[in-house]
Amino acid sequence: MKKFLIALLCVILAAVLVVGGYVAYVFIDYYRLEDNILLEVDTAGGAADSQLTAGETCRVVSCNVGFGAYSADYSFFMDGGTESRARSPEAVRENLTGAMEAVTALDPDFLLVQELDVDGTRSHHIDELALTKELLGGRFPYGTFAQNYDSPYLFWPPLEPHGANRAGIAVFSRFPISSALRRSLPIEEGFMKLVDLDRCYSVQRIPVPGSEGELVLYDLHLSAYTSDGTIADDQLKMLFGDMLAEYEKGNWCVAGGDFNKDLLGDGGASFGVTGPEYTWAQPIPAEIIPEGLSIVAPFDEENPVPSCRNADRPYGEDDFCVTVDGFIVSANVGVEEAAVADTGFQWSDHNPVYLDFTLN
After folding, report:
1. Which fold would CATH assign to domain 33-359?
2. CA nearest neighbour of 115 among 157, 68, 156, 77
3. What are the boundaries of each domain within the chain?
4. Which pTM value belongs to this model?
């Protein structure tokens, strides 16, 4: 019996050391990028054949591609589903190909993409940024990329760990980008920072010849998996402050992306589904939106299409859906149309959204 107890104690001690060592590794390996990082402007797409002009109608499309994993029958473990990785390299390519075909069919002047892996266990180490550029086929002469996720190896779920992943947000433009900047957003501290991203937004400056201002274009992906609901509000307040300062300088401001907020206020009811247990997508408090800026939520009352599904199970028409993808514009930007492109969530848990606008 004594030998058995000693052996059992050794096993327990070894398990504690392994778990403790892994926890230490995760926290030691964790880091955040600093704020105000200048981004490289990629001009590999060739020279721009046109310049942006005031009064011209432009289209910006935003698309969260869900690291190439979310076919319509996919469910994700952090949403209550069962899967943690894309099913295969072929599935990643198929989903990204479908998503890029959908967005290019919308003929955008600007494309904002979120959740692109550049190297990830969950995406079978496919460089999705390079693949996206290939799929776009030189359509956009200018582009930027801002990293917002670089996690240590996460051993969860046990049977198929999410692994180590590096990802970010990308912008593609038909018009010249004179410079770009990565801004670090506030995030939750403690353990929850390990399951959230290194949240940021990117700022692209696009000259408008013949005017004294420029278009300042933002790509964003705000927090979803937090225990503190004020974090996303703090992120928005930072973004609003940045945009308002640019607007007051005489620039035009357009932001787009995945807000992880219910942009319609009661999105589930808007699409004929309810889900009070889904608390991750809350409305944006009206009192934090400053004068001079407005939220543009893409919605067609005659044909309501959500921008996002809850991925706790394979997609069905009675599933909880909401619109979390949309835009922010300054008061000197004219909004002509904002809508969701209905892809049936074939290639992502998000549908692409677009905004037609003019620089007044």
Report:
1. Deoxyribonuclease I; Chain A (3.60.10)
2. 68
3. 1-30, 33-359
4. 0.93
